[in-house]
Amino acid sequence: MRCSRSPRIHSMAPTPELLLAVQLAALLLPFPRWASADPDDEACLSNLRRSLTDPSNSLRNWSRAAFAAPCDGFTSHLEGVTCNNGRVYKLTLAGLALGGAVSPFVSNCTNLQWLDLSSNQLGGGIPPEISALLNLAVLNLSVNRLTGPIPPELALCFYLNVVDLHSNQLSGDIPDGLGLLVRLSAFDVSYNHLEGPIPPSLANRTGTLPRFNASSFAGNKGLYGYPLPPAKGRGISVIAIVGIGLGSGLISLVLSFTIVCVWLRLRKQPSVDGE
Length: 275
Ligand SMILES: *[C@@H]1O[C@H](CO)[C@@H](O)[C@H](O)[C@H]1NC(C)=O
Ligand SMILES: *[C@@H]1O[C@H](CO)[C@@H](O)[C@H](O)[C@H]1NC(C)=O
Ligand SMILES: *[C@@H]1O[C@H](CO)[C@@H](O)[C@H](O)[C@H]1NC(C)=O
Ligand SMILES: *[C@@H]1O[C@H](CO)[C@@H](O)[C@H](O)[C@H]1NC(C)=O
Ligand SMILES: *[C@@H]1O[C@H](CO)[C@@H](O)[C@H](O)[C@H]1NC(C)=O
Prior knowledge:
There is one protein chain. By secondary structure, the chain is of the alpha/beta class. The chain has 2 domains: about 35-230, Leucine-rich repeat, LRR (right-handed beta-alpha superhelix) (Alpha-Beta Horseshoe); about 230-275. About 30% of the residues lie in helices and about 15% in strands. The chain is built from 6 helices and 12 strands. It has helices at about 1-10, 15-30, 40-50, 65-70, 200-205, 230-275, and strands at about 50-55, 80-85, 85-90, 100, 115, 140, 145-150, 160-165, 170, 185-190, 195, 220-225. The radius of gyration is 31 Å and the shape is elongated. One 2-acetamido-2-deoxy-beta-D-glucopyranose (NAG) binds near residues 61, 77 and 79. It is found in: Cell membrane.
């Protein structure tokens, strides 16, 4: 907008009044003239701020005024915000004790390539709207309290390199489509409540090594299949249940037998004494 406007100003004969007006406007603007005022980034940041709680006041300069112009070209004054050419391209709010939820409006930061909200206390679900972030390369939501499914729509983020969702309370299956993300180089869903088979597209690759190691899937009681043991976990638990059943049956049998014996003896004792 600015680029198209300034040549027009120059093409006019600049009267002193006009120059004064321009200078005044520049002074009155809260941010330098090159600051971006992107309405999508503004919606993204203001809604994200609203959805978060910030008990340690880490986001103290996330003010409404700042949302209107979060970027000065390549720099930002907002904690955790990195800009590229006037647009928010990186959000890194890791380990700030943030609570609340991940706002679906984070999808309004349409140039976002890096979203790291790891090591906080975020609850709620992973908004499927994140899939609108077509440039997203890094998604790190690990070590939070996120619940619900891994949105299958994440498979639409073609440029995803890193998906780290470990140590949350996510449930359901691992969506098959994630295996189609050809750039994925780090994938970690360990220590959640996931279940079902590990998609072969995430587990296998040509050669002898798995595409992602067992450690990427560990700590999910219901997950099975290569590189984890093949549905063996279930067999063990069935055997365990049968074992516990048989064991407790045996114990109660022995107990009741003993009680009956003791009772019979006690009943017999007085009659012996009485004779
Ligand atoms: C906003 O906070 C960050 C981190 O606390 C700090 O680096 C930055 O200078 C602050 N910006 C302003 C304008 O206060
Ligand atoms: C911003 O995000 C919300 C929630 O995902 C969506 O409904 C809305 O259409 C988005 N706005 C723009 C301009 O993309
Ligand atoms: C994600 O964030 C966690 C915690 O901040 C960090 O330990 C981990 O290395 C990150 N994951 C990746 C793949 O960079
Ligand atoms: C994946 O690899 C494992 C171990 O090499 C193998 O047992 C399994 O059949 C393979 N699955 C597919 C779908 O290729
Ligand atoms: C899997 O583990 C092996 C051996 O520990 C390691 O060399 C390899 O880089 C790991 N692969 C991934 C994707 O983490």
